[in-house]
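User:
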Amino acid sequence: MIGGAIGQGMLVGTLAAPLILLVACLSGRLRRHALALAPFAPLPALAAALLAIGGPPLTFALPALRLGLLLDAPGAMLLAVAALLWIGGGVYAFRDLRGKPKAELFAVGWLLTLTGSLGVFIAADLLTFYFVYALVSIPAFVLVAHDDDAAAARAGGVYMAFTVLGETFLLMGFVLLAAGEPSGSLAIRDVMAALPGSPWRDAALALTVLAFGLKIALVPMHGWMPLAYSAAPIPAAAVLSGAAVKAGVIGMIRFLPLGAALPGWGETLAAIGLFSAFYGVAIGVTQQNPKTVLAYSSISQMGVIAAVLGMGLAAGDRSAALDAAFYGAHHVIVKGALFLAVGVAAASSRRRLWLTLAPALVLALSLGGLPLTGGALAKLAVKTQLGDGPVGALAAFSAAGTTLLMLHFLRRLADEASREAEAAAPAGLIAPWLAMALAAVLVPWLLYPRMGGHVADALTPYALWEGLWPVLIGAALALLLQRWGDRLPRPPAGDIVGIGEDAFRKSFVIGAALERADGEIRQWPAAAVSLLVLAIVFGAAMMIRL
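Assistant: Predicted structure:
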């Protein structure tokens, strides 16, 4: 009973801690203390995740309001690493932004986005999920457009256009999911149990896959990601690319009927995912900004996760949820750490740069599946889903492409070094970077046995070779890129958005159509209440003159 009460308390604290600090930020007397404590707001979430990883799922319910929280194994795995990254990124952010203009406004956006980023992993019903999903998406505009320059303004506008489109798809999808549940329950487990027999099955799947595909930037819905991550301050880019984007991953885990074999849907999703995996590499190697390169790497890695879930959906294999969660957990912590490395490198002289490049090399190659790294465990975890056929072969070659892209990133990272001979990054930036780098090395080895894997399987000669040969091919390709890369075209960050920007801007005038759809959506009272509450919370926070 005591353990259950503690678990419930940590679940509630996951959402309550950042919101309490947000309210404190609005008080002149408490603001300074709230900002000092903001990096540690994810501690209840981390505690909840550790309890759920080591024991049964955690639950909390308010039956009268039809609201609930649930933390199972896939959610706990992603929540644990997301909380770690938000802590490390928070220490970096509030040290780096101390005394700078708009630091308090940044804190408001940070805490709201944090609430949503953690909340998506524990939401147990449609209303709660929609509310926290909106929080992880909409307030992040403040983080993306924080800098007062044209690039940030453009990135923020593109980001919000994609976000509103995704929120619209999701809300309509949720309406259809709720309509297909005969008892009127809004619990995710109930609507998903009813989905295979629902007359709205295909329409609901299409809308939710579109919504979550936008969030994880599947091609061709990816244009916002390179622009947003390139424009956002370093710590914001770290948590957005590592943790916040996993709202789309957990969304697919929760709302794909993995227990029902749907080969058509699954194979289509897998094909789109694999295309995204190679597309991210192909465009990423043409980019010069290391943050942009990391963004295209995220597009590629999210494509692999989509392929894993697609193959699981095609086969009706529920275990794909945990496999994809582990792969995503590795990406959370590695990608977040590499973004922090960009900031440390920019503040370091070339003489001191090796202190950043050496750990970054290990993490970068880990994404490619280098043996004896967490990436090798991640590749091993999804091997069963991808199989040994054409899909598995393409996934292996995508690992070679990832190695190529990450070695290109390291070259671009080296170019970021400060021109000042004695420049040294502050300890307040180095400490969170090194802590996250160490966590990226160790945490996958601690989590893998918890998902039922055997570490010894990654140490067999066959497994070592399976992880090594794509890295070797990627390294050879990197040498060719270094020699002839200047002959490649240079598409702008966001590629599709940049090419068709005039047409894209015209999409801002779809208000009339959305208003007509809104009239139908308002028939679902929970949706209207959710939108109203979110608008009030976000609007009040933004209107406060900090």
